[in-house]
Structure formats: structure tokens, C-alpha cells
Design a protein that fits this description.
- The chain is an all-alpha fold.
- The protein has one domain: Glycosyltransferase (Alpha/alpha barrel).
- The chain is about 45% helix and about 5% strand.
- It is built from seven helices and two strands, in the order αααααββαα.
- Strands 1-2 form a two-stranded antiparallel sheet.
- Strand 1 and strand 2 form a beta hairpin.
- Helix 3 packs parallel to helix 5.
- The radius of gyration is 15 Å and the shape is globular.
- It starts with a helix and ends with a helix.
Length: about 140
């Protein structure tokens, strides 16, 4: 969705149908998100699903509290984040977990990350890049 947003082609998407499908990715058992039906939750989808929902201003369609709990259960004592609770942390899942927490505005002190570019809003502003989500996520 980020690439389509950059290309100015979001009008090619049926946003309601896509966002409904993305919301169906929230796993009732643990509150996390998966990439397709019948799969287990994985922290990286906290970014992939949420960023698309954020682009269409539909994050409120999922249960934020359950997702935050899932992400935090995947965090170790040093702050890294794994794909699933109890697994080893890695940079990939840490980045996407923090990105998800940022989009959810779940933690004080986290920089706000733009869902289109996956970069902090203040970084985009310093580069003179404005996106449709910049204003919404910088307030």
C-alpha cells in the first residue's frame, strides 16, 4: 500500500474490502496479527497490516489493546522483539514491532512513524516530504 500511495494510485484499491480483510488478520486467541487465514500471529504483521490500515485511516477497526499486549509479550528484557512470545529477538521483528507500537500510539516517547515510508515523521519533514498521513500522524 505504501508503494501505491507513493505512486498516487490508492484509488485503484477497494479500501473497505481490503481493510475488512486486514482486520480479519487479528487472531482472537492472542490478539496478534497474521498474514493469511489459519496462520499464527507474527509481530511483523503489526507493521504490514497496521501500515495499510493507517494509510486508509482504519486502525480503529482492530482491537488496539490486544495487539499492544501481543507485541509486548514478544519483547525480551533488553527491549528486543521476537516474532512470537518466547522466541529469539531479531532486528527485523524489533523494527516492525516498534513500528506497530508507533502507529498504535501505544508508548510514550516513541517517534511517530509514517505508514507510507516507514520512517519517522520528523525525518520526512526535514527532507521536505509530505504524505497524506503526515498531518494525521504528527498531531
Amino acid at each position: 500500500m505504501g508503494a501505491l500511495a507513493i505512486a498516487g494510485k490508492l484509488d485503484k484499491i477497494d479500501a473497505d474490502t481490503l481493510c475488512w480483510w486486514l482486520c480479519e488478520r487479528q487472531v482472537k486467541k492472542d490478539g496478534g496479527l497474521n498474514g493469511r487465514p489459519e496462520k499464527k500471529s507474527d509481530v511483523c504483521y503489526s507493521w504490514w497490516v497496521l501500515s495499510a490500515l493507517a494509510i486508509f485511516d482504519r486502525i480503529h477497526w482492530i482491537n488496539k489493546d490486544l495487539l499492544v499486549q501481543f507485541i509486548l509479550k514478544c519483547q525480551d528484557k533488553e527491549g528486543g522483539i521476537a516474532d512470537k512470545p518466547g522466541n529469539l529477538v531479531d532486528v527485523f521483528h524489533t523494527f516492525f514491532g516498534i513500528g506497530g507500537l508507533s502507529l498504535l500510539r501505544a508508548q510514550e516517547g516513541l517517534k511517530t512513524i509514517d505508514p507510507i515510508y516507514a520512517l519517522p515523521i520528523d525525518c520526512l519533514k526535514s527532507l521536505g516530504i509530505k504524505t497524506p498521513t503526515t498531518k494525521r500522524y504528527s498531531e
